[in-house]
Amino acid sequence: MQGKGVRTLSVVRWLHLSDFHSEGERYADWFLLWRQLPVIKIDFIVFTGDLRNFRAPDFHEGLEMLQELSQRYSRTAKELFLVPGNHDVDPYPDEEEKIKFEDFAVERLQKIENSTRDIVDRNGNPLTERFSQYSEALTELFEGEKYPFAQVYCRTWKNKVNLIHLNTALLSISNSHMEQIVDTPALAALKVPNPELPSLVLAHHS
Fold this sequence. Notes:
3-stranded parallel β-sheet, 13% strand
């Protein structure tokens, strides 16, 4: 539709994937998925968490899978939009620390205030710091370009679509989903660069 004061909309297609749970080797599911991927033109790719399995030593295999997808659809890293999942947290140094955090998470979930207190640990450290390995891996994928990968932020695709990124795995515990929360103060303060554009909100499953 065209005319004075009327915005012309074009078709935008994206591929949405999630939960690779990579562990250093390819599963049969990956090759089955590869054969079933759409053959139409894709404008950008969305991945909503669990790039690796919590047992995996690193994100190497998951990154390779994303790179292969990008090559298949001739997309660059800037046309990838990702948020973390509960399996993407840093590993615990030992079982004792894991139990301590689990106790903290259960206690925190009983006293959610929708304030900045919700998203820090007992020592006042941001819960986003639990995703340091994830953030480092994505910085490598994006060839050194640093986004706040574990936080609330917005990127705009070609001045056509806003993609709002949420980390809903702040209180997750390795292979346990727990209840997932959002940094509501950061979301409320988020400045969307082009508020007149349609927006997609990306988050891991609850």
